[in-house]
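User: Before I run my own analysis I want an independent prediction to cross-check against. Here's the chain; please return only the structure tokens and, at the end, one sentence I can use as a sanity check.
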Amino acid sequence: MKKFVYKIATAAEWSDAIAKGNYEGSLDDKRDCFIHLSQQHQLSGTLEKHFKGKRDLVLIAFEAAALGSDLKWEQSRGGELFPHLYSALPVSVALWERPLPKNNDGVHCLDEEWFAC
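Assistant: Structure tokens:
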């Protein structure tokens, strides 16, 4: 079974990455010296904790194996393992990207259909 990881970024950051061929990371990623990624079940918590109130976000999907040995699984929030990438993220291995709209309560929406096989 394939394992997938996801990056939440601003649309501007991702557009810039597409132009360059690599995503070098957000300010938080650069501060921490790795690119923060999430598994599907971690996305809602990541959005709430790190992206609340932000607009123009996109969600980008990657197959974990395509990221190679620079992808590490490390304990983070609540001791749970999170995927961290210790290199630039090549845009060529992105499977898809989706805008993250907000609902009437201002919460970012994740559509379960995005994750269907």
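Sanity check: The longest helix spans residues 11-20.
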